[in-house]
Design brief:
Elements lengths: L1 E6 L5 H13 L4 E4 L8 H9 L6 E4 L9 H14 L6 E4 L5 H4 L6 H17 L3 E4 L4 E5 L11 E5 L2 H10 L2 E5 L4 H17 L8 E10 L3 H19 L13 H4 L1 H10 L21 H5 L2 E4 L1 H12 L5 E6 L7 H24 L1
Parallel strand pairs: 1-2, 1-11, 2-3, 4-7, 7-8, 8-9, 9-10, 9-11
Antiparallel strand pairs: 5-6
Helix pairs in contact: 2-3, 3-5, 5-6, 6-7, 12-13
Amino acid sequence: MRFGLLLLGEYLPERLKKLAQVAEAHDFEHLWVADEKFFRDPYASLAYLSQHTSRIHLGPCVTDPFTRHPAITAMAMATLDEIAGGRGVLGIGAGFSGLEALGIQRQKIVLALREAIQLIRQLWSGGAVDYEGETVSFHSAELNFPARPDIPILVASAGPQILRLAGEMADAVMLGDLASPVAIGKSLAFVAEGAARLGRSAQDVYRITRLNLILSDDLEAACNLMRPWITGDLWHTYPRWDTMPTYQPDWEVKLQPLCEFIEHYGGKPRNVDDFKLVAEFNPLITTEMVREKALVGSVDQVVAQLQEIAGTGIQEVALYPLPLDGQDVEFVLDTFFEQVMPRFMNASHVREV
């Protein structure tokens, strides 16, 4: 199983460069820069990183079909791929960040993703394109430079419909925050359904799961750092918790105070800052719920989680390091490289023998 690294655009260029170089030095497959508004621009950052790395694949994780016209995404991604010597990978998904500030409403999300991918691939193939979809149009124009036509497209999601779309159209899929073998299995089944629609094999789709990485011998402290992410995700998904691959029927009772808040509030979170409004409900999130959605705890506990994931068909884990107080992202990565990876690789080798 391989690894990738996901970073926000929160770092100064020199520090971002060093993080990318250390990931490449440890043979990470991908370096993703989040298209999270309003951090530093991911395409500019990735172009910069392409000049300071030589092997690692580079891409946004993830862009969306709403905040940028897909033709602009096609242009930006083809430019990055050219600068990076063919190491570009386009990560695309439903989007969330910055939409309210931009006055944009997501509509027909699955169709918008389908049409965006279709248009982007047509533009990469060269020549004039006419495209008239329900969510996007493009009239008698083309990229004015040659693009690599087979730049890989990764679709990221935790939702069944978009996972099916990934199975139909994507070169790779990234599952959102899934560490549980049961939940991963459910999600990959949706990918397989989509692939079967077009006579593809699910094995043709490269399979990644994106996970926060929180390393500490204090499991409770590690879980506390992750709980707000899950509370916010529950709010965003409510009332369709049954569509979440980690769903358990007893949530309706155990999480009743959160349900009551959401019903009283009367709407979904508008941005990440809104998650603070549900912080009082974080203690409702159990350790089991955390471990289903993140790599948390001691080195041995994280190694055990990775061993479980390795048996699911997942080919890569994209890590988003979350440091605790007194740590920094370099500490989390160094601990992963020096302690987690060797134990995991050794255990995997022993199991194969």
